[in-house]
Structure formats: C-alpha cells, structure tokens
Amino acid sequence: MTKDKSQLLRSLTIDRSAAKADRRDRRWLPIVMTAAVCVVVAFAAFAAYEFSRQDSTKETASQTATQPAPQPQTPPPAPQATTNGKAAGSLAASGYVVARRKATVAAEITGKVVEVFTDEGRTVTEGQVVARLDSVLAEKDYELARSRVETADAAVAAITADLEDATRIMSRVQTLSQKNFATEADLTKAQARVGVLSAQLRQAQSQYETAKIDAKRSASMLDKHQIRAPFAGVVVDRSAQPGEMISPMSVGGYTRTGICTIVDMDSIEIEVDVNEAFIGRVQPGGPVNAVLDAYPDWTIPASVIAIVPTANREKATVKVRIRFDKKDPRILPDMAVKVNFMREAKANGTAEATAAN
C-alpha cells in the first residue's frame, strides 16, 4: 500500500528539466525568424535593383537609336542699325548739381559785427553791403588823416606865398645891382632866400602828397568795415550775428571768418563721375538727358561742357561737366541728379524727325 502511494506521488511531480529545454527552444525562435526575414528582404532589394538597372540601360539605348543627328545651328541675325534712341542705347551716370561761383563773404580786417543786412534766401547784387563792422576807430583815423592833408595844404600855400615875395625881391635887387644901387651881397642874399623857399616848397608838397596817400589809406580801411557782395547771387547761408567778432583768420573758437555764403544761380551745372572704361562714349557738346532725384518725372535737356583731363585712381572714374540748356528756379545746388549720355544715333534720329515734321 505504501509503495503504491509513493509511485502515485512521483507521478504527480513536475519534470523541471523538460520545461527548461522548451524555454531555451522558444528563446531562439524569434532570432531565427528575424534573420530569415532580413535575408529575404535583402534578396528582394537586390533583385529589384538589378531589374531597374537593366530597364534603364535598355531605355537609354533605345533613345540613342531613335535620336536624330544634330543639325548645325544658324547664327542669329545681326541687329539692324536704327536711329531709335533706345535701340542705340545710352550711357548712364549719377552726380550732383554744383555752382561754379560760390563764395563765403568775409572781412579783410578783424572787427566786431554791428549789423547784418541780409539773410538766407535773399538776392543780393554786386557791391551791395551785406554787413557792417564797428568803425569808430577807423573813422577817427580818417578824420586825423584828412586834418593832416589840410595842414600840409596850408603849409604849401604859405611857402608858395613866401617864395613869390622872395622872387619879387630878388628881381628888384637884380635891377638895382645893374644900376649899382645894390651890392653884390644883397643880390646873393636874395637869391639864397629864393632857393631855400623853393626847397621848402618841394618838401611841403611832398608832405602834402604823403598826407593825401595816408588819407586815402584811412578811407580804404574805413570802407573795409562795410562788407560787400563780390557778385550777384542768392544767400544760402548766414554765419555771423551782430555782436560777434570776425577775422580773416580763425582765432580760437569764438572768432568767425565769414559773414554769409553767396551762390551765383546762373553758374550752376552738373558734375558726374563716369567709369573710365566708358569715357570714350562721352564727347564735348554731346546731348544729355538729366533727371533730378527731387523731380523724377521731369527730364531736363543738357549738354556736355568738358571732360576734366584727370582720372580718379581710387574710383577709376573721370569727371564730366554738364550744362543745363535752360535754367530753372527748381534746380538747386547740391541736388542729386542722374544723367543719360545720348548716342549720336539718337541725336541724328531726333534731327531727322524734326526735319520731317
């Protein structure tokens, strides 16, 4: 009985070795399946690549067989000459409006500004007084010089009267000496007095001329206190104010050198820098179309004045001067401008069109 129970119990026990072997087999199964899938995918990709390469080779060979032989290209026709301005082309450049006559009006002497008679935007004429300096001392010097002139003139008149009297006395003594009524000593004394008075008269006359020169110099110095415009134009800048010191040379930071700046509006022109590689296309007297940046819709006719015979080494440009065919008050100095140098073809075409009309 006991033996049967022992066999029964052994039959109910679990065999651990078989379960472990089963688990080991299941662990390797996913790895083997993954490797097999990778091999299949790689083989399929290789087969697809070989197939596509064979197809592309066949297609290239068929295209090469069906492509016609290349035909020689026909050169494009040469452009026909025309008198149209756009077809002929033009050279463009940019620059600024400048004034050939522009001056800063300054005094020739050092002094204090008393009055300024002009302001920005006003028109002045040549010789017009634009400012006045303190001239009290200059006026005194001029009065003193005039007084010296009057004194020298009076001295000349007095010596002239004495000389005339001495000349009459000498003549009378000469007459008496011929009749033996006067001695030789009296005649010599009269002649000596005439000679002395003649020398004094020349000295007085020289002093008189010197006094007049000094008076003119004083008058000129007095006139320098009146600062005048050197030419007719428009005042574009006023620098000095009444009460300030002005001098031909700047002394420190409190002395000005100019009263105002005047521009001659009749002397304005255009200065542009043209690339030296294209300067051969610019000719003196050639037609030009100018457009101000301030008025982009306004084309101004102009012409070339001259080509400045020097080049800018840094910018590789040559300066060209251009005149306006007609002045306009809207054109102001330092305005930016763009110009087009027109070809001779356009000029000839314009002339022909004008003649036809």
From TrEMBL:
Database matches in SUPFAM superfamilies: HlyD-like secretion proteins
Q: Which UniProt keywords apply?
A: Membrane, Transmembrane, Transmembrane helix
Tell me what organism the protein belongs to: Bradyrhizobium archetypum
Q: GO cellular component annotations, sorted alphabetically?
A: efflux pump complex
Where in this chain does the record put each CusB-like beta-barrel domain? 270-344
Q: Where do the record's region annotations for Disordered lie?
A: 58-86
This chain's protein is named: Efflux RND transporter periplasmic adaptor subunit
Q: Name one GO molecular function term.
A: efflux transmembrane transporter activity
UniProt xrefs under InterPro entries: Beta-barrel_RND_2, BSH_CzcB-like, RND_pump_MFP
Q: Where are the transmembrane segments?
A: 28-49
Q: Where is the composition biased (Pro residues)?
A: 69-79
Q: Which domain of life is it from?
A: Bacteria
Protein family membership: Belongs to the membrane fusion protein (MFP) (TC 8.A.1) family.
Q: Where is the CzcB-like barrel-sandwich hybrid domain?
A: 102-248
